[in-house]
């Protein structure tokens, strides 16, 4: 992002005239901006950087202290990962022009790359003082607050930026990213209006707003007050609630309990009024979309079950008629959809054949997402290319689970600023220097165990010059991924159905392999790792994610109860077991499960608690595993807060790569890796 210097310094007797220096400066920055475009390949980006560097060097040859040239060369060094060189050039520029906002901005990014967050705040702040209208300096300053762990300060900063630049995709994405850690401590009308505006945006990932919205609703309706009186009509007309049910996937147990009660009242009142209340029917439509998001995981009591069965019988009778119109079934369809998938109705295909424009305008998004989307996945399954037939017995069992419940379901791809994969690794991993192949030619990336494809598509869209191969056992999961690839028009990804044990059949090697949450579901995780390493190019990078024994203790306890109760991995038993946990009817403390996002959807809960195959690891086991396979540990993917806590508890540890120190840390903080050990390795 450009924030060039504004100061041009000339020495007496310079052979380059001011006009010529200006022209070189403009041409150099133009070449540099082209290097940042997400429309150019890595080679072309390198060429543009090279041209920009040559032009800047020409400026310096005749004007040794030319500030714009020093700034530009510093930015190029920063982009190429040479942070010390960048700092030297920028320090020299600031010696000449201490009031140059562009140089302070560039120096801030050097500090950010070196994880010197306090210095970055000072630099971006100085840049803003000198040029108050520069949006990028303000955005970078707020981003640094987030990296420091000052989440409230970052949220307030992004909230203000959103008011000034509501169309900026970077500001939107970062606001929602920070908001996932924010909850209201009381009801605020102004905040509610902001959130309503954010939920009304299209083509953004709203999921980060879930906690904030839940907390606003909690305080607005006094959900923690047993004596609170809530009017169903108020809920039906509540813009925040309706938008949230449509757009969000809620992951709060207290809100689920509330929504389950409201859903029942919507059902009872709609039936008793013979569907005459339009506001309630529209609220039922919002609940139908919420049920799609969580895959109908909410518990159903006996009374509701009888009524839903009657609705199903009525709908299936109507669907036997030769010509069905929306008016024949819409009301009953929306009430039924609050509880069970519309795609499972006998006659669902007949509903899908009704032209979308025959449905009321307000109902079309519901029909599209609750009916047509699922049937589209059924059709796409047949287009997924297999590597070989799956034959390993455990792989067949795991495949069956994900064919029935593709995991994880997701709603939006989200936004990232396009970047180079190697530079992203250097930002994530302390002291890491990425191999040169990230700057030359196409980077081949394998996503091994792609599931429903969100991560594979994000890699394909937001890393420059990559070709992604995504494999998974489940054709149904890959169909979901393919559907989303069509939606986002992403073409540099190939989806293949297959077993990791047959990965060598691809006859291709990769610069990067990412295998998250897969190896621990194999009969022999080590055999799977060996297969993957065989497909890695020299100095190739592998990202692995495995379950932690310490962090999964509560899951192990829950699995013992599932076995004792004889529950099976189907929707009905998942509902029953969740209901027992949420109502504290089982001996033991299972509250930690409520902090897991996976607990709040059918496929997620099945993966979390009902999986047919699971291995767990300790950090010493990880160390031995990597040693046996000659893989170098590059570091865990953790939050800045966890890294700071690690340094506090292990003050004598010189590096974040010390696995022995991480083992000691986990013994003191056993829930640290509740989201799995996620780490990078590299071939030796």
Automatic annotation (TrEMBL):
As one GO molecular function, the record gives: transferase activity
TPR repeats: which residues? 67-100, 101-134
* The keyword Transport appears for this protein: no
Q: What InterPro entries does the record point to? A: Methyltransf_25, SAM-dependent_MTases_sf, TPR-like_helical_dom_sf, TPR_rpt
Q: Where is the signal peptide?
A: none
Q: Which residues form the Methyltransferase domain?
A: 445-540
What the entry lists under Pfam families is as follows:
Methyltransf_25, TPR_19
In which domain of life is the source organism classified? Bacteria
Q: Which UniProt keywords apply?
A: TPR repeat, Transferase
This chain's protein is named Methyltransferase domain-containing protein
Q: Which species does the entry assign this protein to?
A: Saccharospirillum salsuginis
């Amino acid at each position: 992002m450009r924030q060039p210097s504004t100061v041009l310094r000339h020495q007496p007797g310079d052979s380059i005239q001011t006009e010529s220096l200006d022209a070189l400066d403009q041409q150099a920055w133009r070449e540099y901006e082209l290097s940042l475009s997400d429309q150019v390949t890595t080679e072309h980006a390198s060429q543009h950087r090279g041209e920009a560097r040559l032009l800047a060097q020409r400026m310096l040859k005749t004007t040794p202290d030319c500030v714009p040239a020093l700034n530009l060369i510093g930015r190029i060094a920063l982009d190429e990962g040479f942070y010390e060189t960048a700092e030297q050039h920028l320090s020299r520029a600031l010696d000449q022009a201490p009031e140059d906002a562009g140089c302070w901005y560039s120096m801030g990014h050097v500090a950010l790359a070196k994880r010197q967050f306090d210095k970055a705040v000072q630099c971006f702040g100085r840049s803003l003082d000198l040029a108050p209208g520069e949006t990028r300096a303000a955005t970078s300053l707020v981003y640094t607050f987030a990296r420091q762990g000052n989440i409230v300060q970052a949220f307030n900063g992004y909230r203000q930026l959103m008011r000034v630049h509501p169309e900026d995709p970077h500001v939107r994405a970062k606001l929602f990213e920070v908001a996932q850690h924010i909850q209201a401590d009381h009801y605020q009308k102004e905040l509610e209006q902001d959130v309503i505006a954010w939920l009304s945006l299209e083509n953004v990932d709203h999921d980060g707003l879930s906690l904030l919205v839940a907390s606003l609703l909690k305080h607005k309706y006094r959900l923690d007050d047993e004596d609170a009186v809530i009017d169903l009509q108020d809920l039906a007309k509540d813009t925040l609630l309706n938008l949230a049910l449509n757009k969000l996937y809620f992951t709060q147990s207290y809100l689920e309990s509330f929504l389950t009660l409201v859903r029942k009242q919507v059902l009872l009142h709609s039936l008793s009024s013979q569907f005459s209340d339009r506001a309630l029917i529209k609220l039922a439509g919002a609940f139908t979309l919420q049920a799609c998001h969580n895959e109908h995981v909410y518990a159903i009591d006996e009374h509701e079950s009888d009524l839903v069965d009657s609705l199903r019988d009525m709908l299936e009778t109507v669907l036997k008629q030769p010509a069905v119109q929306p008016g024949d079934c819409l009301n009953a369809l929306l009430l039924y959809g609050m509880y069970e998938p519309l795609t499972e109705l006998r006659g669902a295909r007949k509903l899908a054949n009704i032209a979308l424009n025959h449905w009321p305008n307000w109902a079309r998004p519901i029909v599209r997402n609750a009916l047509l989307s699922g049937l589209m996945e059924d059709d796409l399954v047949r287009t997924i290319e297999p590597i070989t037939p799956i034959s390993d017995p455990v792989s067949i069992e795991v495949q069956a689970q994900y064919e029935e419940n593709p995991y994880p379901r997701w709603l939006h791809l989200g936004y990232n600023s396009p970047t180079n994969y190697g530079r992203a690794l250097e930002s994530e991993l302390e002291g890491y220097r990425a191999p040169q192949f990230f700057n030359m030619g196409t980077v081949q990336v394998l996503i091994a165990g792609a599931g429903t494809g969100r991560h594979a598509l994000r890699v394909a869209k937001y890393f420059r010059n990559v070709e992604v191969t995504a494999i998974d056992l489940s054709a149904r999961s890959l169909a979901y991924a393919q559907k989303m690839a069509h939606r986002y028009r992403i073409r540099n990804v190939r989806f293949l159905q297959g077993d990791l044990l047959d990965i060598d059949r691809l006859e291709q090697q990769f610069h990067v392999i990412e295998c998250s949450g897969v190896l621990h579901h194999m009969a022999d995780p080590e055999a799977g790792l060996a297969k993957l390493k065989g497909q890695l190019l020299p100095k190739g990078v592998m990202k692995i994610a495995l379950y932690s024994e310490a962090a999964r203790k509560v899951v192990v306890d829950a699995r013992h109860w599932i076995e004792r109760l004889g529950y099976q991995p189907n929707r009905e038993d998942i509902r029953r077991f969740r209901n027992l946990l949420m109502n504290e009817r089982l001996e033991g403390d299972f509250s930690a499960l409520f902090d897991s996002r996976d607990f709040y959807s059918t496929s997620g809960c099945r993966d979390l608690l009902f999986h047919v195959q699971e291995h767990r690891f300790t950090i010493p086991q990880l160390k031995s595993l990597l040693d046996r396979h000659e893989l170098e540990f590059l570091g865990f993917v953790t939050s800045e807060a966890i890294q700071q806590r690690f340094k506090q508890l292990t003050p004598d540890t010189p590096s974040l790569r010390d696995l022995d120190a991480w083992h000691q840390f986990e013994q003191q903080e056993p829930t640290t890796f509740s989201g799995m050990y996620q780490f990078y390795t590299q071939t030796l």
